[in-house]
Amino acid sequence: MDMAQPDSGPIKPRDTDLHWTEWALDRLREVVDLDIRTMRATVREHERVLRGAEMPDYPLMQSRLSRSVRLSIAMTERIRRDYYLRMQARIASGEQERRRAKREQAVETAVKAIARPAEPEDAERVRLLVRERLTEDEVLDVQLDLLSPEEFVRAVSRRIGLPPDPSWLPPGWADEAVTVEVVAETAEPAEAWPRPADESIAGRLTPPPSKPDSS
Fold first, then answer.
1. Which of 43, 62, 93 is the last residue of a domain?
2. Co-location of 115 and 86 in the same domain
3. Is residue 210 domain-resident?
4. What is the pLDDT of residue 173?
5. Measured at the alpha carbon of residue 71, what is the angle toward residues 70 and 72, in degrees to the nearest 5?
6. Are 101 and 143 within one domain?
7. Is the domain of 86 the same as that of 104?
8. What confidence score (pLDDT) does residue 193 get?
9. Which residue intervals make up region (Disordered) (predicted)?
10. pLDDT for the residue numbered 40
11. Whole-number pLDDT of residue 164
């Protein structure tokens, strides 16, 4: 039986291997639970239905369900064992500590670029959002080794719906950084991040219609 884990503090990024392992184990638990409930329902149906020529082959059904449960449990143990072996290899090679340091460095870089200095509590809010995004977004987590700090800030700002400070980005990147992909579950309301009106559209007069050619 799984024990409830106590609240140990703010959300921290976890590796994609652990995320997938937990997902696979959850699905296997669902399969085993469904098979066991089906077996019980089959027993009840077996006791209710009168024997006859059209009676289903209940022993065969139960045998197949039992085999499915055994295979699911064996697969669960295999997934756990393989994950444990991979974790030991990563610890021995220093990969786990390197990934943890890389994530924390990326989080702090994003905080410096996105958080508003005038609001001290904004830094912690951005830190939690970025950590949560790294935890949930496996693609972004893998890209830590591929993106430069500036590219990572642009990518994570689009995902959390908060634009970075244009002065932090290299020249030529500021205009692109203001286009943010707003994420509904994490983005602040529109009024929290006012944006200047597009001068190329706002205030532009509509040209009069052209006169038809009388010739």
1. 93
2. no
3. no
4. 55
5. 90
6. yes
7. no
8. 34
9. 186-215
10. 85
11. 84
Q: Note the pLDDT of residue 210.
A: 53
The secondary structure of 53-91 as a DSSP string is: TT---HHHHHHHHHHHHHHHHHHHHHHHHHHHHHHHHHH
- Does residue 61 lie within any of the structural domains? yes
- Which parts of the chain sit beneath pLDDT 70? 1-15, 49-56, 58, 169-215
The pairs formed by 60-63 with CB atoms below 8 angstroms and a separation of 24 or more are none
Residue 7 CB burial class (10 angstroms; 0-12, 13-18, ≥19) = exposed
Q: Does a structural domain hold residue 173? A: yes
Give the structural domain span for 107.
Answer: 97-190
Distance CA 129, CA 111 (A): 10
Q: Which two tokens stand for residue 130?
A: 């970025």
Tokens describing residue 204:
């532009």
Determine the Cα angle at 36 with ends 51 and 62, to 5°. 35
Q: Model's pTM, two decimal places?
A: 0.42
